[in-house]
Specification:
234 residues; alpha/beta; single chain; Rossmann fold
């Protein structure tokens, strides 16, 4: 009997774990605002924007606040979808949060102008499949940015990142242990990223380091127009 691969690596973010994560990440929205501003600088007003693995929805909500975008969020966690919908309602913005798998997206081809994924790519069990799906649902000329942790992030850089989260002493310690024993082990090197993109439909990418993380920039090129029939009348 065939088995279905789990869509994520590690523990599922459901129930109490999802609630704890949402409560702590919601204490400092600076990084979500930063990503939202980066998206707004690249996505044309009125465009369709997809956030993969939006979790509690803070970044997608900030994107919706930043400009005139049709924003969708897709997350594998049913708890996060529920929490994100509640957060969007409280914020007074319209974001279409849906339950689904990044490597099997429930969207037609060429559905979005821009796709963003923040701090989740390392948790995908099928990263190349997710890249191929991103390519599929992007419109020709569309772009994507994936933000995540660098494998070579130093202890000092991680400590500075956690300090900016404004966590309690216990949660700061717990977060530091999570970085050390879980997140860094799942994180990718620059070579890993280049290899995965080369195997995907994108083939090429740009990687920019930023603090403890990186931004993986992807683009789906506009297809060349078909050549006219040389025998046709001018």
């Amino acid at each position: 009997m065939a088995t279905t691969r789990k869509a994520y690596r590690g523990l599922g973010m459901e129930g109490a774990i999802a609630t704890w994560y949402a409560k702590n990440t919601g204490k400092n929205l600076t990084r979500f605002m930063k990503v939202a501003e980066a998206v707004a600088a690249q996505a044309a007003p009125g465009g369709r924007v997809l956030e993969l693995a939006p979790g509690p929805g803070f970044c997608a909500i900030e994107i919706a606040r930043t400009g005139n975008y049709d924003v969708t969020g897709l997350d594998i966690s049913e708890s996060f979808v529920r929490i994100a919908r509640d957060n969007a309602k409280s914020a007074g913005v319209a974001v279409d949060f849906r339950h689904g798998n990044a490597s099997e997206m429930p969207f037609p081809d060429a559905s979005f102008d821009f796709i963003v994924c923040s701090a989740a790519f390392k948790n995908f069990s099928d990263p190349v499949g997710a890249l191929d799906e991103i390519h599929r649902v992007l419109r020709p000329g569309g772009r994507a940015s994936i933000y995540d942790l660098r494998k070579d992030a130093t202890s000092a850089e991680i400590s500075a990142e956690i300090q900016g989260m404004r966590l309690s002493a216990f949660n700061a310690w717990l977060t530091r242990m999570t970085f050390r024993f879980v997140l860094l082990k799942r994180a990718y090197t620059r070579g890993d990223l280049d290899a995965m993109v080369a195997r995907s439909q994108f083939r090429t990418c740009e990687v920019v380091n930023d603090g403890v993380g990186f931004e993986l920039r992807l683009a789906r090129p506009v297809r060349s127009r078909l050549h006219t029939n040389p025998g046709a009348a001018a």
